[in-house]
Amino acid sequence: MVTANRDPAGRLPDFLGVGPPRAATSWLDAVLRGHVGLPRDIKEVDFFIENYARGIDWYARYFADCDPNLPCGEICPSYYSPLGRERIAKHLPRCKIICTFRDPVEWRYSFYKLAVRNAWTRDDFESWVAKNPGDTHGGLRAWFDAFGRDRVLVLIHDDLAADAQSYLDGVCGFIGIDRIALAESAVGTRKINTFSAPPRSRALARRARKLRDWLKSREAYRAINLLGRAGLWRYCFEGGAEFAPLTPEVEARLRERLRPEVEALEKLIGRELAAWKFGADAHAAGAGRRARG
């Protein structure tokens, strides 16, 4: 039997996937469901940021029905912040932490598209990046310090693309469950929470977002899921012309600006991330020249 993380409030998470976002956290939640305890009807309870005032008893309700023989947890990318870390360390000091990192240029463009989809911004990509310069990898050392390096698993998005089974095996071993065979998983080979186009109408997307947020505030997750299955959210949040790929010029400017961020992460985790610094094509070309030489 799993030694469950308990509090006077009740069952609390044994592990948390804290993000940052847009790095296959929805895929991980989908694949783990049925193999660990996760919040019913919702991926992100977002207790430690948006709902902290509701209290730890309220949060514990989301794990009350989890199988005591399995670890339970939550995958919530918004927790990757100093405030989230502080609150998690206060309530769950022995929790296992999963941090997922992605090429910072790809991450920013993916998050920008999400911002457009949700009608959070009217800016073009470079203007949005200038207003949102956050370091996606910043603070990792503080997570190591708060929870112990052996209790923090660092995942690299590239590894999921290269070998999804090995990537998942590492997660399963870390949280203490049996290996999940992706070939036998109904969702393991699918991309989750992806989209390729902005809304057909920004005004419609804004109204849909407000409705969705209102339903969330009332914990009406089944209604949200029902509307999703009916196609309402995709109709409201998509339908425009497809997002264009980044131009080589924009990508090059961003890679140069973000290179120190990548180099800091390389030193911290002891791994080279050349494609993140120079772009996948440039890295591949360089590797080819070295092989021929």
Here the CATH topology of the largest domain equals Rossmann fold
Radius of gyration from CA coordinates: 20 Å
* Main sheet strand line-up: 4-3-5-6
> Biggest β-sheet: count, sense, barrel?
4 strands, parallel
- Total number of domains: 2
**Broad shape:** globular
Give the % helix.
Answer: 40-55%
Concise structural overview:
By secondary structure, the protein is α/β, with parallel strands linked by helices.
Explain what the structure shows.
With 293 residues, the chain is α/β, with parallel strands linked by helices. It folds into 2 domains: 5-190, Rossmann fold; 197-239, no CATH class. Helix content is 48%, strand content 9%. It contains 14 helices and 6 strands. The chain has helices spanning 25-32, 56-60, 82-91, 104-117, 125-131, 140-147, 157-162, 164-175, 202-217, 221-229, 232-237, 248-269, 274-278, 280-292; strands at residues 5-7, 10-12, 15-19, 73-75, 96-101, 152-156. The protein has a 4-stranded parallel beta sheet, sandwiched between helices. A hairpin with a 2-residue loop joins β1 (5-7) and β2 (10-12). α3 runs parallel beside α6. The longest helix has 22 residues, at 248-269. The chain is globular.
